[in-house]
Design a protein that fits this description.
The chain is an alpha/beta fold. It has helices at 14-25, 27-34, 59-69, 84-90, 110-119, 129-145, 162-169, 184-194, 199-208, 217-220, 223-236, 256-264, 327-344, and strands at residues 3-10, 36-45, 49-52, 79-80, 95-98, 123-126, 150-151, 175-181, 247-248, 268-276, 284-292, 306-312, 317-322.
């Protein structure tokens, strides 16, 4: 018997659209291999508007509207005047995919969307690191009270299964610390500068490749890295740290001369995120440029690649590297969480 899962989406940017296309591409596999049929019953964004259809939206029509105007047609029969909170209450979905824009300081409006979804008997998948970085314990407790699943694999390193690896592959282990390169944009910029490109030109190239936003400050000044560090620490180490508590040094503090001098000694400068735990002392959280040696597992992580090293009490030290991710890997992270739900519902 084929099970039916109804999805709703808060946010329909590049990740949401690629995820929906992936669902269409995998429709036959979902039915044949996983015994599941997925219907998207609601999509809402502040800029595009809201669509609701309890029988499932026609995604060809949705993609056509997006291609034509980047807005949902107000004359379309599925168009409603609800905002995202109203969509969550009225779309009849089993699952909310929270894919809105990051707010690193308060995790909103994503945290409110997730809260509303739990109150409306929905499971939640989020690609938004803000709620995990700022409100994880509160939201996880709320999910437990409502007996709902809360999944967030995509929040750090896209589709690389860092959270799932720790949950399902490190039974009985404690994660004592973590260290990594979590922001592909800054890693790319450091590589460009090491090749003699001026900082501002490197930023423009990253923007041309759609690696960096029009305002690159979230990446360059370390806030994105701080949010990912907090998300990892809160989930894997059981902390309750927020991005504002992380010691952050902007990448702007690194000069071309610094990079050149490091290279002359066989070193590289990398933008490193660290949660360091020492016995009897509070955990130290930092995002800062560091000069690292060739023996460091992060030394060869170049371009837009990312990596995380976990330090555990029983399994020792392990490093996971994500090589040059694309939008597909981010969409896959959401899809992977959906398949987790399919397997346990």
């Amino acid at each position: 018997m084929t099970k039916e899962i109804k999805l709703s989406l808060a946010g329909f940017g590049a990740v949401g659209q690629r995820f929906c296309r992936l669902l269409c591409e995998k429709e036959a596999e979902l039915a044949d291999v996983f015994g599941c049929r997925v219907k998207i019953t609601g999509i809402s964004t502040p800029s595009r508007g809201t669509l609701i259809n309890h029988n499932g939206l026609d995604m060809d029509e949705v993609f056509a509207m997006e291609a034509a105007t980047k807005k949902f047609d107000q004359d379309h029969p599925d168009y409603v005047t609800e905002d995202t909170m109203g969509m969550i209450r009225n779309c009849g979905a089993d699952v909310l995919c929270e894919l809105t824009t990051l707010s690193v300081f308060d995790g909103e409006p994503a945290a409110s969307h997730i809260t509303e979804a739990f109150h409306n008997d929905m499971h939640v998948i989020t690609a938004n690191k803000g709620p995990i970085a700022v409100h994880f314990r509160k939201l996880a407790s709320l999910a437990d009270r409502h007996e709902k699943h809360f999944l967030y694999e995509t929040t750090v390193m896209d589709g690389t299964p860092v959270f799932n690896m720790a949950k399902n592959g490190l039974h009985g282990c404690q994660v004592l610390g973590l260290r990594g390169i979590f922001n592909g944009t800054t890693n790319f910029l450091l590589g460009e500068i090491s090749q003699g490109v001026e900082f501002d030109e490197a930023v423009k190239e990253a923007q041309r490749r759609q690696i960096a936003e029009a305002d690159p400050s979230m990446d360059v000044d370390g806030l994105d890295g701080a949010a990912k560090l907090c998300a990892l620490a809160n989930v894997l180490m059981g902390t309750e740290v927020r991005p504002v508590e992380v010691d952050v040094t902007s990448l702007r503090s690194v000069s071309a001369e610094d990079i050149k001098t490091a290279a002359q000694s066989g070193h590289k400068i990398k933008y490193i995120c660290t949660a360091k735990k020492e016995e009897g002392k509070p955990i130290l959280y930092s995002v800062q440029p560091e000069r690292i040696e060739k023996e460091d597992p992060l030394y060869s992580v170049d371009g837009t690649s990312a990596a995380v090293t976990l330090y555990t009490d029983l399994a020792g030290e392990m490093t996971v590297i994500q090589t040059e991710p694309t939008l597909l890997q981010t969409a896959y992270g959401v899809y992977s969480d959906l398949l987790t739900l399919v397997n346990i519902l």
